[in-house]
Every structure is written in structure tokens, then in C-alpha cells.
Specification:
Blueprint (H helix, E strand, L loop, with lengths): L6 H10 L3 E9 L8 E9 L5 E10 L5 E9 L8 E2 L4 H13 L1 H23 L4
Antiparallel strand pairs: 1-2, 2-3, 3-4, 4-5
Helix pairs in contact: 2-3
Length: 129
């Protein structure tokens, strides 16, 4: 084949590079109209066929706004690097997946963004020159 990949081999390589997420479970600590936190369990099927479980927890304030999000690898081994940074490539992919799978999270983030824009407009309008 003179160093060229056949179409079949190209498809195998492309398929091997795909990773898939699956939302396994979610749990919220709903107390008196205050959420507290929502915990998501997500399974990643990586390109090598390895399955990795993650716990994603959104922490809410009394206004039901997300104030913190933590991503952890769930493992039965003692590892130093179980925490996943939200701004990492993997962290961003996990959070995008969870947001797309759970509409409440997306609605909350959108409402928080609109509120921030309103604050910025109010700040600009109410400035004293």
C-alpha cells in the first residue's frame, strides 16, 4: 500500500481515538428549597477501552448559584492525582458533558451569567463621573 492507510484502517484509528462519557447517577441534597450540592457520577470510556469513574460535585449558595465545582477520579487505589482541575482539557470536557446531560446545571449557569451582566450594566450606569 506504499505507506498509505486503507479506508478500513483509517476508520479503526478514528474510532479508537473517540472517548465517550455516560452519566451514571446524580444526587442532590435538596433541603427546604435550597439545593446545597448536586453530585454527578460519570463514566468515561477512553480511547483504549479503559473505563474511569468520576465524581463531579456542584456546590450551591442560598441563592441556588453554583459557587464551587469539584471533579474527582473515583478509584480503589491510593493516588496523589485524584483531583481534576476544572480548567484542564479533561475537566472542561467532563463539565461540558454534565451541563449538556442535566438541564438544571445549564439553566443555573445561564442565570448566573445573566445576573453578572446585569451587575455590570448597573455598575456602568450608576457610576459617578
Amino acid at each position: 500500500m506504499n505507506g498509505l492507510l486503507s479506508l478500513e484502517n483509517k476508520n479503526k484509528i478514528i474510532m479508537a481515538q473517540e472517548a465517550k462519557f455516560k452519566l451514571i447517577n446524580l444526587h442532590d441534597s435538596n433541603n427546604d428549597n435550597s439545593i446545597g450540592f448536586i453530585e454527578y457520577k460519570v463514566k468515561l470510556y477512553d480511547a483504549d477501552g479503559v473505563e474511569v469513574m468520576y465524581s463531579i460535585t456542584d456546590y450551591y449558595n442560598e441563592s441556588n448559584e453554583i459557587v464551587d465545582t469539584r471533579i474527582w477520579v473515583l478509584s480503589d487505589k491510593i493516588l496523589d492525582d485524584l483531583f481534576i482541575e476544572n480548567d484542564s482539557k479533561l475537566g472542561k470536557k467532563i463539565l461540558t458533558f454534565v451541563t449538556n446531560e442535566h438541564p438544571y446545571r445549564g439553566d443555573t449557569l445561564e442565570a448566573m451569567h445573566v445576573k453578572e451582566l446585569e451587575y455590570q450594566i448597573d455598575d456602568y450606569v450608576n457610576r459617578e463621573y
